[in-house]
């Protein structure tokens, strides 16, 4: 690959070590600078690696809350978080199999803990946005629910 092409892909004129591999679409491949033996020690299987990634959303929430930052999730992230929470709360059920009340409870939990917007929750759970806002603000489910009820 030509030096000019590498500079364009990487976005820098810094000279890279020659043993680093550069992919035309992906950029610098981590195999050149990551100690794969250490990665394999940490994550012996792909399943272990994927399980570690699952916990990443929780880390983002904890960090953002500790520094007072607000969270902004992409639709894809919000849907992923929602599906994970769905599987945890309602194993074996899909979104379309949930009762409206279950969708409301799930939405309130996701909004309170992950700050997922009513717009995203409405799209993911298949309800109208105004209905979602009613869930989130209701005395029965949402933010205004009295403790112990």
What's the arrangement of secondary structure elements?
Elements: H1 3-10, E1 22-23, E2 27-28, H2 36-42, H3 46-54, H4 56-67, H5 75-89, H6 100-114, H7 118-125, H8 129-137
Antiparallel strand pairs: 1-2
Helix pairs in contact: 5-6, 6-7, 7-8
Detailed description of the structure:
This protein is mostly helical and 149 residues long. It has three domains: 1-34, no CATH class; 36-70, no CATH class; 71-149, no CATH class. It is built from eight helices and two strands, in the order αββααααααα. Strands 1-2 form a two-stranded antiparallel ribbon. Strand 1 and strand 2 (27-28) form a beta hairpin. Helix 7 packs across helix 8. The longest helix has 15 residues, at 75-89. It is elongated, with a radius of gyration of 21 Å. 13% of the residues are buried.
Keywords summarizing the entry:
single chain; 149 residues; 3 domains; 3% strand
Hey, roughly how much beta strand do the residues contain?
under 5%
Shape category: elongated
Count of separate structural domains: 3
- Compressed to H and E, one letter per element, the order equals HEEHHHHHHH
Helix content: 55-70%
Strand order of the largest sheet: 1-2
Largest beta-sheet characterization: 2 strands, antiparallel
Rg measurement, Å: 21 Å
Number of strands: 2
Number of helices in the DSSP assignment: 8
Low-confidence segments, given as residue ranges, are: none
Report the span from N to C terminus.
66 Å
Overall mean confidence score, pLDDT: 83
What structural class do you assign from the helix and strand content? mainly alpha
């Amino acid at each position: 690959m030509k030096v000019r092409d590498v500079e364009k892909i990487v976005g820098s004129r810094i000279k890279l070590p020659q043993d680093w591999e550069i992919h035309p679409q992906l950029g610098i491949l981590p195999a050149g600078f990551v100690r794969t033996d250490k990665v394999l020690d940490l994550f012996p299987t792909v399943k272990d690696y994927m399980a570690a990634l699952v916990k990443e959303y929780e880390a983002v929430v904890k960090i953002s809350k500790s520094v007072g930052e607000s969270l902004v999730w992409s639709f894809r992230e919000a849907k992923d978080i929602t599906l994970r929470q769905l599987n945890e709360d309602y194993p074996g059920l899909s979104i379309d199999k949930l009762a409206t009340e279950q969708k409301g409870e799930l939405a309130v939990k996701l909004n309170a803990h992950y700050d997922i917007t009513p717009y995203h929750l409405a799209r993911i759970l298949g309800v109208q946005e105004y209905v979602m806002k009613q869930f989130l603000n209701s005395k029965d489910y949402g933010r205004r629910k009295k403790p112990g009820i």
